[in-house]
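quick one
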Amino acid sequence: ILQVSSKMKSNSAWYSASSFSSSVPTVKLFIDGKFVESKSDKWIDIHNPATNEVIGRVPQATKAEMDAAIASCKRAFPAWADTSVLSRQQVLLRYQQLIKENLKEIAKLITLEQGKTLADAEGDVFRGLQVVEHACSVTSLMMGETMPSITKDMDLYSYRLPLGVCAGIAPFNFPAMIPLWMFPMAMVCGNTFLMKPSERVPGATMLLAKLLQDSGAPDGTLNIIHGQHEAVNFICDHPDIKAISFVGSNKAGEYIFERGSRHGKRVQANMGAKNHGVVMPDANKENTLNQLVGAAFGAAGQRCMALSTAVLVGEAKKWLPELVERAKNLRVNAGDQPGADLGPLITPQAKERVCNLIDSGTKEGASILLDGRKIKVKGYENGNFVGPTIISNVKPNMTCYKEEIFGPVLVVLETETLDEAIQIVNNNPYGNGTAIFTTNGATARKYAHLVDVGQVGVNVPIPVPLPMFSFTGSRSSFRGDTNFYGKQGIQFYTQLKTITSQWKEEDATLSSPAVVMPT
Ligand code: NAD
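structure w/ nicotinamide-adenine-dinucleotide:
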């Protein structure tokens, strides 16, 4: 980690030795094709979550800097929208190659700032890369529709056209994948983009911006600002921004959805979750227990698709002791350490919140079968570590069930029947993801059809759709009506224009005004 950190200090265009304060590197803004030092007097520390060392500082961009970023996006838009779709595709084709070549470097930055294991960080980049690859299909994805001869000599056809300047606001938990859900899809359609990464993990986005520039994206097509509330309000209110993509918590997402919509923008907001894994007694036990443990505790539970709630149906409740044994075997360590299965939580505050939610389980009558609150990681005593935790006897009215924990905590409920399990899942306000584990096709089919959740896995614990589909979380996990990536992503970032056209060979002059609605 230290090696990456010192390398970044000396070599990187996105961090620079700061004149602002001592030797802590600062994150630059990316404005009009240049990595520039902010003039802000408000800075936020970036910590390595495994040590809590300050590894950098990110500015809260000033109003003038944010204005400059938007002006740059706006200036670049007409030429970029007019660039042939094949040329835009070429930029993205080069981009996917450069991301592949730099995948490990991006992953190291993610582990340094976010804490997840290196292998998991590579997965983070890889899942974003798949969206870039998907964006390369723009030449078919952006096609409009045609209908010839809707009446004599008249044809009807539509174009999909870019909107203008779009913006993205990203969370901390997938520093590469989530920004890559946003700007590549928007830009390949001919939009220009203003990105605000999470202030806790800006590094990956900065490196991704550099690679995009190296791929040939013209100056101004992507601009990056940093900050928190002021930057978010700026994006929600600015009249030149036509659409906002947000991923993060419900608190921020609902606020941004409402404020952005009030200003007439399209907003898509992917938000929090409480994902249930329903375990039927006929499931393949070995497979199911491994899937549950991986999906509950991987990335220290800091995934919106983490399978954080198990519903054991009937005899499956007898598997609980084995589930605990498997979870105990996971290795908690700094993300860059060989063999680590899960790393730290993002901040000391996140750790405290998770521990308080575990405490609430005890107070409200649940049983802690495995307790990760007091874990110590040798050599990383100051890190924000929580070990795998399993809470059983959980009831739907308990705080640890109602809140999204966002930590390595699995809450376990029990039911006698599948119908009861479905009822529990459907009564939960979130609809991001769910999974059923069974060897019975009819049971799986019934679950998939009756459960009111946007993404369902059958013997697949984290059913995040590949980018030729869309990410379709529902109910309280999503606001908006057009999802991220896939055909819906293209729809979100484009406006349809429909053309009705008449060309007659003979003289088409009307002999009198056509005052009646044409039929
Ligand atoms: P967050 O909401 O705290 O931050 C997300 C972004 O919003 C950041 O850029 C931040 O600067 C900004 N922000 C934070 N608080 C704000 C506020 N009060 N007003 C305006 N802007 C604000 O989220 P996070 O902690 O970075 O990410 C974790 C959350 O994201 C979890 O709830 C997780 O489920 C969710 N998430 C959802 C998905 C999905 O696709 N559904 C994917 C990843 C993460």
